[in-house]
């Protein structure tokens, strides 16, 4: 299995592997030992599509029997145009079609002695954390995005199903649940916030209720892809109480009103600053991460300066950015005023420099604080860990370079921060 793209695609890969393991298939560690290769593609940006095509080509060269699935798989003509030798092409969430393709390529040989799978399924993440997908699809019509055309409209899972999966994950040793979807704030809206029953009682399919129920399981709960709707404020008291990690991943994308309007973003930048202030008043430790697009069509220097000024006022804890690029099928491709590549690059560098200064200043304020951290990896140089303010893969880390020999991934330890950099922290055990 070659899994590309975002954590949501990773969950799709896990579900496919779980189904395969249930039928007795084994997962090979390399191309040479496999009878077939599944490539789960990303199709969000043209650069991601290129990476997907490259991965498919590599799998064909190394193995020859390749099944393609995922977001880019929705464009079968493009896949087969580049690689006509692939065995099958399926779109995102088409688990049954993937299984049929595997059955055709490698007929199953059921054996009741080897068909058992872990209760939590097959996962591609370390044992101590797991992504928990609560819905598929999105109802927004952002001009730069083609995800709704790939994954469809919002389709929320019943709350009881999410909670049962979370229970199994925690029982299997997971210390951190990372809640993901295309639009976490909208969870349950499409099913009327329906209730369902799990071992803890009645559960309502609303993000506030779900977060509270997840927080009762005893693991860290981290929320991703949270649009800044007004009802998000209901989550902040749960963070202040310690039920949910005081961490919000909010995809702001920009701050200029004219650019947000051109993007068709469902947010008002002025109210967003007010909400951030209100959130921090309730939960001063709140860490906010976000992503931004630099050089969206029509973005003027004044728009970009507005974004920089907004960033200085918002003082977000973790920030990522990428330069706008056309995506096949996106409405933004036809907008006037595309920004020259050299201007996008220059703005990107200025933006990341500003974000880095803010990050460095905010991390410096943590020196001397005591925090609980989760150990992700240990080698001869030390332990790489994360506090509540760092999500895996996308944020910085907390490093312990003394007194770490007895630590192992999944351990939770208390530390005191004694050094800060631009994106990372260093700490000693206490």
TrEMBL record:
Residue span, Radical SAM core domain: 124-361
InterPro entries: Elp3/MiaA/NifB-like_rSAM, Methylthiotransferase, Methylthiotransferase_N, Methylthiotransferase_N_sf, NA-bd_OB-fold, Ribosomal_uS12_MeSTrfase_RimO, rSAM, rSAM_horseshoe
Cofactor-binding details, from the entry: Binds 2 [4Fe-4S] clusters. One cluster is coordinated with 3 cysteines and an exchangeable S-adenosyl-L-methionine.
One Pfam family linked to the record: Radical_SAM
A Gene Ontology biological process term: tRNA modification
EC code: 2.8.4.4
GO cellular component: cytosol; ribosome
Keyword Lipoprotein appears in the UniProt entry: no
Residues reported in the UniProt entry to bind [4Fe-4S] cluster 2: 138, 142, 145
Subcellular location: Cytoplasm
Predominant localisation class: cytoplasm
Annotated residues for binding of [4Fe-4S] cluster 1: 6, 42, 71
Function summary: Catalyzes the methylthiolation of an aspartic acid residue of ribosomal protein uS12.
Record's protein name: Ribosomal protein uS12 methylthiotransferase RimO
Organism whose genome encodes this protein: Rubrimonas cliftonensis
Gene assigned in the entry: rimO
